[in-house]
Amino acid sequence: MTEQDDNPRNDPDADIGPRITHGERPVPRRRAKGLTVRAVTPNAITAAALCLGLTGIRFAISGDWRMAVLAVLMAGALDGIDGRIARLLKAQTRFGAELDSLADSLSFGVAPALILFLWSLQDLPRIGWFASLALALCCMLRLARFNAQIDMEEQPHKSAGFLTGVPAPVGAGLAFLPLYLWMATGEPIFREPVVVAVWVVLNAFLMISNLATISWTSLKPGRTVRIEVIALVGLLGAALLLEPWLTLATLCIGYLLLLPYGWLRYRKVKRLRAAAAS
Question: Where do transmembrane segments lie in this chain (predicted)?
Fold first, then answer.
């Protein structure tokens, strides 16, 4: 027998352990469990949305308002798909829900508040900072209320296909309405700190209000207008490329006009439920 044959590294049975005897079963070697792409993807998208929201603050510090707003809007777009991807991949976890709430509170509460403060509200140091605090605080309170109601069986608004208050991503987009109008027109009135402060505080309380608002999932166009809806979405995409700020301002105004419609529609559903119960 040569020296190479005596080397245990060349023995195929060297790393197997003791030889099994008759009547014994080999114990399979355990493999280390790692994270799968299915489990990581939704959380990675949420983390990307968080980073985009915080990057918006960095652009605001350097005075690049266009990129600051776009960063928050991109965070909102990612926030709209991470939950759907998690449900599609069946990768919903409690960790993902908590991470999503943390990301939303920073991207749609803290980031817009600081961006608006640096853009306009800092000219009124006390009132402006109060308005920024109201936006950030109300966004966090809304998310805390949402988390507290996840396991509640009785949710009148949700069971009827409505939301309670203005969603956090939509609230962040609405808070930027004066900035959209200022970017589109250049009029200094839209950058007036008093005007911006009043609008920000009003928008903050819309987020924590008990107002029934329209859910996008409940908007189901009829078969007769589906072609028109597809054309409208295509034209909207073109408008966002050609006139982004004016288009965003129009979308905000359109959403505000839908608030009374959602309230009236929910009242009708509430009356029908009461009549059915009696």
Answer: 35-59, 127-148, 160-182, 194-213, 225-242, 248-264
